[in-house]
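#structure-requests
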Amino acid sequence: MIGEASDLAELQSLARELRPDVVVIEPQMSDGDPVEVIRALVASGIVVVVHSARGHPAVVEQLRRAGACSYVLKGTGIDRLREAVVAASLGTPPSRGSTTTELRFGAAIDALPLTRREVDVFMALARGCSNREAGAALGISPKTIETYRSRINAKLGIATRRELVQVAIDLDLLSRDGAGRRR
């Protein structure tokens, strides 16, 4: 290890200064957009490994599209992270099952990188409620629902209601009739 950063801005500065072969990034760092940081690092020739406590498929895919070569879940052990970094430095894929891109998701609602209120809006929209219906159910305006929907879309790396519903299905949050499962 040649450097450690406490936020994305410091990470970018250190990467320019130290020119590492591989950077391990935590996408939940509070400042900046990890997608843009990953794109910039990859564009400068640096290989990126993501190490995160969350493994939501839409987020994994978004970071993969940005150029991250591996996505390792925290809690899978230091050996898996080490393996991903070594594989990245050698330009080889990590072994099967060591990154979340190789995993299947049946995750709970906790896997969503959303606030509690965003989860409520997410579930209402996934069940097929219009903005007006969701707003009435949650006691907020349809315009506020639209604001939440924009934030949800950005956080999940999605653009359409269909993708939102697919995320809910992937996480097994909807039953066959479209009703939300108990949490």
